[in-house]
Amino acid sequence: MDTMRVRFWGTRGSIPAALTAHMLRDKLVHALVSAAGHNLDTPEKAGAFADTLPFPISHTFGGNSPCVELLADGAPRVLLDMGSGGRPAGLEALRQLAGKPGEFHIFMSHLHWDHIMGFPFFTPAYIPGHSIRIYGCHAELEHAFRRQQAPPSFPVDFSKLGARIEFVQLEPGRHYEIAGYRVMAKLQAHGGDSYGYRFERGGKTVIYSTDSEHKLDDIAQTDGFIDFFHAADLVIFDAMYSLADAISVKEDWGHSSNVVGVELCQLAQARHLVLFHHEPAYDDATIERVWRETQRLEEITRGEHPVQVTAAYDGLEIAL
Ligand SMILES: [Zn+2]
Ligand SMILES: [Zn+2]
Predict the structure, then answer these.
(1) Is 78:1 a contact under the CB 8 Å cutoff?
(2) Is the pLDDT score of 45 beyond 80?
(3) How much is the pTM?
(4) Considering every ligand atom, which ligand is closest to the CA of 83?
(5) How many domains does the chain have?
(6) Which end of the chain, N or C, is more open, meaning fewer C-beta atoms within 10 Å of its C-beta?
(7) pLDDT tens, 16-40?
(8) 211 CA distance to ligand 2 centroid (A)?
(9) DSSP label at residue 308
């Protein structure tokens, strides 16, 4: 059976946010205190103990800006957005290709910096023999990629890139067959517009819906997204804000909350909600808290269709 996998290379919104030395030290202190009295004299015992610690102590959600990969047997590489997570994604692809030419299909939600900034560091773009197709619905798609590498912003001009790079304009609402997937884009509410994507392959459906502000009191807009998310196996969702922020100070900032994500997935009978585009000001403990609260909210509002809730982190891989 053809399985599809989704790998998260960058899950932070708006700007990359690195873990600081102090944050790392705090995790270590917490872990060492928890370890007191345990016999951890081998890597195996220490590893097993680490797995019992809360996620924000033993891990980090990570700091790269949006880049997600769809993987399926026999299909070329598909990347969703080219945030700073595009840098490690490119390096891993080259490692796997081991010198062979690669075929990359990149779907762009929109052209804000946090979603394009990884491209100048996407190594396959520099190497002749690779082919890269960049899809999007914005008329300025190609211009945005060329401009970020034009002087005085970057030392290597776009025209110097060695790979074969093409730009493909998509029309929202139309079905396309691309790279072994059935693909449809949908217009979303965001400053300068953004587009969500629905990918279908082998009976599985993945929705990539980031940088989208939902107002559930707008019935027509909500119905459109319930259709778009319908029965999806995975919904990657912009849950940048807590509900309190989303409906007060940050209303009209172009992002959504975990609460809206749960409600839309329940209405659409989607199976798995992935919280994505984390607020850069949130530390690991805060993201974990939002995740737990979202799980609780889903449990107490659950109807006939349970929705699994996950908070995305850099390095997370989900098999469908
Ligand atoms: Zn963004
Ligand atoms: Zn944006």
Answers:
(1) no
(2) yes
(3) 0.95
(4) 1
(5) 1
(6) N
(7) 999 999 999 999 999 999 999 999 9
(8) 5
(9) E
